[in-house]
Amino acid sequence: MIDGVGKMQNAVQEQYLKVKVETASPGELTLMLYQEMTKSLLLAKRLYTQQQFEKMNEALHKVRSILTELIVTLNMDYQIARDLKELYDFYSRHVAEFMIRRDVALLDDTLEFCQGLAETWKEALLSLKKGGNSAHV
After folding, report:
1. pLDDT per residue as tens digits for the range 14-63
2. How many angstroms separate the Cα of 60 from the Cα of each of 3, 21, 70, 88, 94?
3. Which of 39, 56, 60, 92 is 20 to 30 Å from the Cα of 50, by its Cα?
4. pTM for the model
5. Among 58, 28, 17, residue whose Cα is nearest residue 41
């Protein structure tokens, strides 16, 4: 019985997430990616301390996939996009290097970067909404 309830809860959560993603603006989608990346980095760090390296690597591959997705969506006509691409590439290499060297400082640096991006992006979205401009970021 508990299995059935758990499956139903998962199905409801998946449907909620699907609707949330389908109705989100590009700016909100970017924020979701930053938040998911932060969540995956925190999970990877916890798994590292528990010496669950295979699961840790899965979480880190997800982080690198998100960074790749962020790069693909950049409009390179703008300098800020080129700057972001360099940062995304840099931190993607940080994650890859951590997977090899297991230097926690690399993971911490990437986590700090990601949390900063998420917070800045969240503030920017709130600022746009407060300004009465509901334009997509």
Report:
1. 554 454 555 568 888 999 999 999 999 999 999 999 999 999 999 999 99
2. 29, 22, 15, 14, 11
3. 92
4. 0.78
5. 58
